[in-house]
Structure to design on (641 residues):
């Protein structure tokens, strides 16, 4: 419903975040987790969010969903998300959280069907339409074969793909993934990011992925945004951001940037792991 | 529902060569079994007792209370009174208390994502015991609409305790589950300490206080049934409506929120409705242990974690269980009565442990 009603003018970004600031109050005084971050994502594009631990990547995702109280303006498809009830927000943006813990006794299909929550009224159960959407999402993520297995029996890679399927079942124009490749082997890392990119392309979703592996980010993302201490340090194509000087500025570390022999995209190699 | 079952992967072997594993039965077989168990327990509870009344006479007495029907001529007045004024309210009260404790237990476990949660977690039981103890000790005897002051004071104590716990745990518009549980445990210890002190100071009434704490239905009356029902009905209607949402709440709080559930509001609403019902139940039954913990887990072990089945079935099984336990309490040590809380523990715990051993991996929650 809301997602279908979005008619953003051609060329306007699907996610428009302007001057987003998030301040947490703590016992030691206020801490600014995000400091005037502006970030746009167009439909069909995948943006990689990089930056050291604590630079505000997860906070940005929480700000977009309204979980973290943010100043500034955030709009999805031209609709300001501030003050929207959670159910409406969940029809606009789906999140794949960082290392989500899942209830072990529910099946993978149960979990994916929970992605239909924002589209169901209180007394409504999942109908054939919802099951069909869940099935599509599970076919896309190669999890339909484990649909009736319990979540507690799944491997880390299977669980990660089930959670991606759950996010797809939400049928939102915007998809945000918080370190979707953490704890996955290199094969599953490539599979998950490749899947997400192809979903962005074929379904015209706007995708934001927090990725720690800079080489992977460079291979799969259309654009990369680098955060440090809650501010955007650089953004642009992989070539512009995955650059020794910028990475030195962001991570405080010397790296060598090579070229992928097949794609010509940047490949990052640390230099002796020295912090500078 | 039929289409839904057909679309389940287990039946969809044509889709990418999936294994045909198992189909799930609908909710009706389980609900029918639960209902039959409840009716069976109720029938036994009405017919068995120190004075045995034949089943046929029992049915006659019950049916004759329907308007326009009068078929109890052959039944003695004493038997009529036993059935209608003593056993029926007792069975009803045990059933209502059992259903409430099991339903609110399942609710608390779901809301707190904690398998150890039960209706007494945030202070209902100890608050009720303290409220009742204060009345016993102060030796006032006031009655209100046929009710003694005891259940009213227990109810007030239970509610005061819950409100206190919730008020302490609420920080900046949020109520973290861990804080709530810890606050509940702390306040419970405090009320228990005060109750124990009052009991020791007033040894003449120690027996009365102990019997309130252990719980039972030997003082059941229609007045108590009428008192408890208005608090229990909202819970029995509203909580099962939230079955699907409670499934989503079994995810981490933030995940549930990302899926569009207003976690804080839903949790507060469910806790309020459940606590009100549990407080009312405890005020007439005393603090009967294990029902709210064991019954929902037994249902979960048998039927899986889906709250849409768990909640209604916990109600039916809880009612059947407590009616049966009360029957044993009446019959085991005639003419004396064993406190029903002792029966629920002695019968319920081994059964529960058996189920627990049988469950593979322990991953059923």
């Amino acid at each position: 419903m809301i997602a279908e009603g979005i008619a953003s003018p051609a060329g306007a970004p699907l996610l428009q975040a302007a001057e987003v600031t998030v301040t947490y109050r703590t016992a030691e005084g206020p801490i600014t987790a995000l400091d005037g971050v502006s970030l746009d994502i167009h439909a069909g594009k995948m943006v990689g969010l990089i930056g050291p631990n604590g630079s505000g990547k997860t906070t940005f995702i929480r700000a977009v969903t309204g979980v973290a109280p943010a100043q500034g303006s955030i709009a999805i498809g031209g609709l300001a998300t501030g003050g929207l009830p959670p159910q409406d927000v969940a029809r606009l943006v789906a999140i794949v959280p960082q290392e989500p813990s899942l209830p072990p006794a529910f099946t993978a299909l149960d979990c994916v069907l929970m992605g239909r929550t924002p589209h169901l009224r209180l007394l409504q159960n999942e109908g054939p339409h919802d099951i069909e959407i869940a099935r599509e999402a599970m076919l896309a993520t190669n999890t339909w074969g484990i649909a009736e297995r319990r979540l507690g029996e799944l491997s880390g890679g299977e669980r990660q793909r089930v959670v991606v399927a759950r996010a797809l079942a939400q049928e939102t124009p915007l998809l945000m993934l918080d370190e979707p490749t953490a704890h996955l082997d290199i094969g599953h890392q490539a599979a998950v990011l490749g899947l997400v990119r192809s979903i962005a392309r074929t379904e015209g979703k706007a995708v934001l992925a927090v990725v720690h592996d800079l080489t992977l980010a460079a291979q799969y993302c259309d654009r990369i945004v680098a955060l440090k201490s809650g501010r955007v340090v650089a953004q642009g194509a992989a070539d512009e951001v995955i650059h020794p000087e910028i990475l030195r500025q962001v991570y405080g570390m010397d790296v060598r940037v090579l070229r992928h022999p097949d794609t010509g995209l940047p490949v990052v190699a640390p230099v002796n792991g020295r912090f500078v | 529902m039929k289409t839904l079952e057909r679309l389940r992967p287990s039946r969809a072997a044509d889709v990418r060569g999936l294994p045909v594993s198992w189909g799930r039965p609908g909710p009706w077989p389980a609900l029918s079994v639960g209902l039959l168990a409840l009716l069976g327990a109720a029938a036994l509870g009405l017919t068995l007792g120190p004075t045995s009344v034949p089943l046929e006479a029992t049915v006659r007495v019950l049916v004759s209370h329907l308007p326009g029907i009068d078929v109890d001529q052959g039944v003695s007045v004493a038997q009529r009174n036993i059935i209608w004024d003593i056993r029926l309210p007792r069975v009803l009260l045990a059933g209502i208390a059992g259903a409430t404790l099991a339903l609110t237990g399942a609710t608390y476990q779901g809301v707190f994502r904690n398998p150890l949660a039960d209706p007494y977690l945030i202070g209902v039981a100890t608050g009720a015991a303290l409220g009742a103890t204060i009345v016993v000790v102060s030796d006032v005897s006031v009655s209100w609409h046929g009710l003694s002051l005891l259940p009213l004071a227990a109810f007030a104590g239970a509610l005061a305790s819950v409100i206190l716990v919730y008020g302490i745990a609420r920080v900046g518009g949020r109520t973290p589950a861990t804080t709530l549980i810890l606050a509940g445990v702390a306040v419970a210890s405090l009320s228990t300490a005060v109750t124990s002190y009052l009991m020791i100071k007033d040894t003449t009434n120690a027996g009365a206080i102990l019997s309130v704490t252990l719980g039972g239905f030997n003082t059941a009356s229609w007045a108590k049934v009428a008192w408890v029902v208005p608090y229990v009905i909202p819970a029995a209607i509203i909580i099962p409506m939230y079955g699907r949402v409670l499934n989503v709440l079994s995810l981490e709080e933030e995940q549930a929120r990302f899926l569009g559930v207003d976690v804080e509001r839903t949790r507060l609403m469910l806790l309020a409705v459940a606590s009100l019902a549990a407080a009312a139940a405890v005020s007439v039954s005393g603090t009967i242990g294990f029902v709210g913990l064991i019954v929902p887990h037994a249902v979960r072990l048998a039927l899986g974690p889906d709250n849409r089945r768990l909640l209604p079935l916990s109600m039916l099984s809880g009612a059947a269980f407590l009616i049966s336990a009360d029957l044993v309490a009446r019959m085991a040590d005639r003419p004396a009565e064993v406190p029903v809380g002792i029966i629920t523990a002695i019968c319920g715990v081994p059964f529960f442990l058996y189920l627990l051993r049988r469950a593979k991996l322990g991953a059923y929650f």
In short: The radius of gyration of chain B is 22 Å. Strands of chain B lie at 143-144, 147-148.
